[in-house]
Amino acid sequence: MLICVLGFSGCGNAGTSGGLKDGSYTAEMKEYSHGWKEFVTITVKNGEIVSTEYNAENASGFIKSWDNAYMMNMKPVSGTYPNEYTRYYAAQLTGQSSAPEIEVLSGASSSGGNFAKLSQAVVEQAEKGDSTVVLVEAE
Length: 139
Prior knowledge:
Layout: H1 2-9, E1 23-29, E2 37-45, E3 48-57, H2 68-78, H3 82-93, H4 109-128, E4 134-136
Parallel strand pairs: 1-4
Antiparallel strand pairs: 1-2, 2-3
């Protein structure tokens, strides 16, 4: 029994003290915009963000970056599309231990601004070790 207790004691919110706590955290926009609600989910291990998902979903739960028709319409107009820019932004947060300054991608600047807000909010949740989904105002 002692081995079980000792084994499980290392599985909590380890992380670095004062830094990011290990676990998964999500921040999402409070309101839908043009039918989509953006969100960021991170996973923290050993005080560092090891994975980041940035995307948007509609009211039925369909993911924006899966929408090929949206991509076909957006790419010629703005030079990018959701499956491209969501990965671009997510890569800027992965590997970090704090919210970095976000380099905005031309053609997806509105999403870049939202990603920066969501990143800040989700990192604050990780610093507290609070896995409650935080809602972010668009401004």
